[in-house]
Design a protein that fits this description.
mainly alpha, two-stranded antiparallel sheet, 11 helices, 4 strands
């Protein structure tokens, strides 16, 4: 039976996915299929990556799909759905939004992974002092490409005003996403020498940040769904609280600073949405 930290982690992910599902239900079949495709993609990419790389394994969660927790797959679906809602409310050109999606997902993972391995959610098998507090640098390469690949696959046809947008885009996102995951996994492990992992990851992520900033994006140009705030907020809040209660976030203490910084970035980006929700609460 999973321990309390595992159960609460699962519960929060199911809450995140439910928030996304409620939003999708109100906004049509295409959104529902996109979210479901994202959840299926999450499970499949985890199954494929574990067998392709043999680099990590999961602890025992309540609901497992073979050796992958169902909640992890649904977490990918919720994250992808939430970040794309946010980027679609920005001034970024349509083609650049998948890049922002990947970077927004990294905001969560920079706080997530190092705390999660200390709570036993998964294990990279390298100890807690390897590269990024026990997390391989290549993992952040993977997070970016996972979200970018699905997002760009979906957006190839999603802008169309016909049936292909509704019915084909989710399937295309699933296919392009899986091909992107397997291809980039192979690239980082079989083509790029290990000594250049950090350089490769850094170049990709810094280039993505520079490109997005060079476009001078403006955010929240239209009201953004509250779930775009709640998905990262619940993740950051739970990891911060669980890390503090368990004490693992002090091993080393800089982890607390990283978690607080990533939480602050998320709050800054989503402040207009949070302010709108607080205003509605006061009026009510």
């Amino acid at each position: 039976m999973p321990n309390t930290y595992f159960l609460l982690f699962e519960l929060i992910i199911y809450i995140q996915f439910t928030l996304c599902l409620l939003h999708a239900w109100k906004h049509g079949t295409g959104n529902i299929l996109k979210l479901l495709a994202g959840g299926a993609f999450g499970v499949l990419l985890e199954l494929a990556t574990i067998r392709q790389l043999h680099a990590y394994h999961y602890g025992q969660f309540l609901i497992m799909v073979v050796d992958v927790p169902l909640c992890i797959g649904l977490a990918w679906g919720a994250v992808i759905y939430a970040v794309s809602e946010f980027s679609d409310g920005s001034s970024l050109p349509y083609w650049a939004r998948p890049i922002l999606d990947g970077l927004l997902a990294l905001n969560i993972d920079l706080a997530l992974d190092a705390v999660a391995i200390r709570l036993g959610f998964w294990d990279w098998g390298q100890g807690l002092h390897f590269e990024y507090f026990g997390v391989p640098f290549a993992n952040f390469w993977a997070w970016f490409w996972v979200v970018f690949s699905f997002s760009i696959g979906y957006r190839l046809l999603a802008h169309r005003a016909d049936w292909t947008s509704t019915w084909i885009s989710p399937f295309l996102a699933l296919v392009v996403g899986l091909v992107g995951v397997v291809s980039t996994n192979s690239l980082i492990t079989m083509v790029i020498p290990y000594d250049f992992y950090m350089l490769s990851v850094g170049l990709v992520l810094i280039s993505a940040i520079v490109l997005v900033l060079s476009l001078r994006p403006r955010f929240n140009l239209r009201p953004v769904a509250a779930l775009a705030f709640w998905v990262p907020f619940l993740s950051h809040a739970y990891l911060l609280i669980a890390g503090l209660v368990s004490g693992v976030i002090f091993n080393p203490p800089v982890l607390l600073l990283v978690s607080l910084l990533m939480f602050a970035v998320a709050l800054y980006l989503h402040w207009p949405t949070l302010r709108h929700m607080l205003h509605k609460f006061k009026v009510a």
